[in-house]
From TrEMBL, chain A:
It holds the Pfam family BPD_transp_1. The chain crosses the membrane at residues 28-52, 87-108, 120-137, 149-176, 222-245, 271-295. It is found in: Cell membrane. The keyword Mitochondrion does not apply. PROSITE patterns: ABC_TM1 (PS50928). InterPro entries: MetI-like (IPR000515), MetI-like_sf (IPR035906). The keyword Transmembrane helix applies. GO terms for biological process: transmembrane transport. GO terms for cellular component: plasma membrane. This is Sorbitol/mannitol transport system permease protein.
TrEMBL record, chain B:
It is found in: Cell membrane. Residues 69-259 form the ABC transmembrane type-1 domain. It comes from Acidiphilium rubrum. One of its GO terms (biological process) is transmembrane transport. It is a multi-pass membrane protein. Keywords: Cell membrane, Membrane, Transmembrane, Transmembrane helix, Transport. This is Sorbitol/mannitol transport system permease protein. The chain crosses the membrane at residues 6-28, 40-57, 63-94, 106-126, 138-160, 181-203, 209-228, 235-258. The lineage of its organism: Bacteria, Pseudomonadati, Pseudomonadota, Alphaproteobacteria, Acetobacterales. SUPFAM superfamilies: MetI-like.
């Protein structure tokens, strides 16, 4: 839930008492720095190394095979299906969380009876662990025989749908959206609370109608937090795993096999370490390109 | 004025509807947990029934469940204590003794969070197997600590930045060393900040599913792995599974509700406060 990154202003100004050089800060910093260095570099190097080997746990030993894993990776149609699925998942959930997250945050930011309780309820799904979220939806809500949605549909005279076989990706997107709309709500609500009320009041006095205030003051204020939500959620959603694992297992067929899930299948179902690692390197490159792109977008937004 | 009062009522009602729609799946899980297995799959769904705690008793009577619940506690608390112990001095140094490298160090720590876990699945999986850490609590504690370390450093850093440097400066002038400053000044001064940092770290590792599913089996799995794994064979036992799920998410729902606003800071690396 936390694959994330954002940018903040690090004030480099040296406040009084903070510039002292007498203290040797190296021993204080070193444990954290060394651990993170090892954590971020060693496994990565190992993955790159494996990716050039014909290495299957079932048929050892490992043999260097040049760039063969990569050639198979990019000529394999399932790679491209997986990338398409990842894009659909990320964009679907992002669209849902920006639209509904903003709407719900705006509604909850009003003054109304019991609003603190309403806020807690609206944000609660974010704290539900993915396997549980997956099970609630898979069994209690979306099951065609005993699920609540099926029953609603029969009430309306419709036939219940077997969600996970007729619309598997939509089902997965719905479950992830249910967890990530509240995240967007939480971030945007926090941002709204820091909005200068004097400015709004002044605009109101000048006769600006509700919609105009929303359009010219509130939404511009939300632009930056929204871009942060986009950034954090896309990085997380690219590595989305547990809901797919608990509900569809990547199926039916390859309908919900994202890039992350494809790597998992190659690695721990097929035990083909070499090709899983090649795909892993590709996923890492992809995530970093995305992160760079997003950080640039956000910092441009920061300066604006 | 009248119109504005009316619109306020309408918006209030809409807000409540939105909140209830979002919360409904959790509510329905809680309701199902108090049903018998037969009631749980009844159509039309039962709204009125005599609640029973049988499903909770059944779910917790399972030896596996208790072990996995204990693992969740040990792993989330253990990794949090470790992460804070490592991050506290680092955040102290970064916040109170900034150099030209400070910004780079912080951004670099942040960048380690961008590495998709699945990209290093194989080396971690095989490496833990080699050194005998697979399916051990220590192994999982280590993974969660490293995963959360950047967030913990950032969050502590942002809280330390709010403490006036003059206080520590005065202590320094009086000849009080960094160790005492951290113990006797910083720790009490940033109590609430540390508490919410710890809370976020506990929440993140309690809910962590990827590593728990992939590097544990029957010994060190957490509740996230338990529920993900047993979903298939026990898929028919909705009431029992719901009861197990309620117990698994209840503590985090409470923790999360306690410090919502402060959590935002950690979740967004200080970008939204």
């Amino acid at each position: 839930m936390d694959q994330g990154v954002a940018v903040t202003n690090i004030s480099t100004e040296v406040r009084s008492g903070r510039g002292a050089r007498q203290v040797n800060t190296l021993p204080l910093l070193l444990p954290a720095v060394i651990l993170l260095l090892l954590w971020s570099i060693l496994p990565l190097l190992r993955t790159i190394f494996y990716s050039f080997e014909n290495y299957n746990l079932m048929t050892p030993p490992a043999v260097f095979n040049g760039g063969l894993n990569y050639r198979y990776l990019f000529t394999d149609i399932s790679t491209w299906v997986a990338i398409k699925n990842s894009v659909v998942l990320v964009l679907g959930v992002l669209a849902a969380s920006i639209v509904f997250g903003t709407l719900i945050a705006l509604l909850l930011n009003n003054d109304f009876p019991g609003r603190n309780i309403a806020r807690l309820l609206a944000i609660a799904p974010f704290f539900v662990m993915s396997p549980v979220a997956a099970l609630i939806w898979k069994n209690l809500l979306l099951d065609p025989v005993s699920g609540l949605f099926g029953w609603f549909m029969t009430l309306l005279g419709l036939h219940p749908i077997a969600w996970f076989s007729t619309a598997p990706m939509l089902s997965v997107v719905i479950i992830y959206s249910w967890r990530w709309i509240p995240f967007a709500t939480l971030i945007l609500l926090t941002a709204l609370q820091s909005l200068d009320t004097d400015q709004l009041e002044a605009a109101r006095m000048d006769g600006a109608k509700g919609l105009a205030r929303l359009r010219y003051i509130v939404l511009p204020h939300l632009l930056r937090p929204i871009s942060i939500v986009i950034m954090l959620e896309s990085i997380f959603l690219l590595s989305a795993f547990a809901v797919i694992y608990t509900t569809t297992n990547g199926g039916p067929g390859d309908a919900t096999t994202t890039l992350t899930y494809l790597i998992f299948i190659k690695a721990l179902n097929d035990f083909s370490i070499g090709s899983a690692s090649a795909a892993g390197v590709f996923a890492i490159v992809l995530a970093n390109v995305l992160a760079m792109f997003l950080i640039r977008a956000v910092s441009r937004n920061l300066q604006a | 004025m009248k119109q504005s009062a009316l619109s306020q009522i309408i918006f209030g009602i809409l807000a409540w509807i939105a909140a209830l729609v979002m919360f409904f799946p959790i509510l329905w899980m809680i309701v199902t947990a108090f049903k018998t297995e037969g009631q749980a799959i009844a159509i039309p769904p039962l709204i009125l029934f005599t609640p029973t705690i049988q499903s909770f008793l059944d779910a917790t009577a399972n030896a596996g469940y208790l072990l996995f619940a204990m693992n969740s506690v040990i792993v989330s608390v253990g990794s949090t204590v470790l992460a804070i112990a490592i991050a506290f001095p680092a955040a102290y140094a970064l916040a109170f003794f900034p150099t030209q490298r400070t910004e780079f160090t912080l951004m670099w720590m942040l960048s380690t969070k961008m590495l998709p876990a699945v990209g290093v699945l194989m080396p971690i999986y095989l490496g833990m197997k080699t050194i005998g850490l697979q399916d051990t609590r220590i192994g999982l504690v280590g993974l969660d600590t490293l995963m959360n370390l950047p967030i913990v450093v950032w969050m502590l850093y942002s809280f330390f930045k709010e403490i006036p440097g003059e206080i520590l400066e005065a202590a320094r002038v009086d000849g009080i060393g960094p160790r005492q400053q951290m113990w006797h000044l910083l720790l009490p001064l940033s109590g609430p900040g540390i508490a919410s940092t710890a809370l976020l770290s506990v929440i993140l590792s309690w809910n962590e599913a990827f590593w728990s599913i992939n590097v544990t089996a029957s010994h060190a799995g957490t509740l996230a792995a338990y529920i993900a794994r047993f979903s298939a064979p026990e898929g028919l036992f909705w009431a029992k599974l719901s009861a197990a799920s309620v117990l698994a998410v209840a503590p985090i729902l409470v923790f999360g509700s306690l410090t919502q606003r402060r959590l935002v800071r950690g979740l967004t690396f200080g970008a939204v406060k």
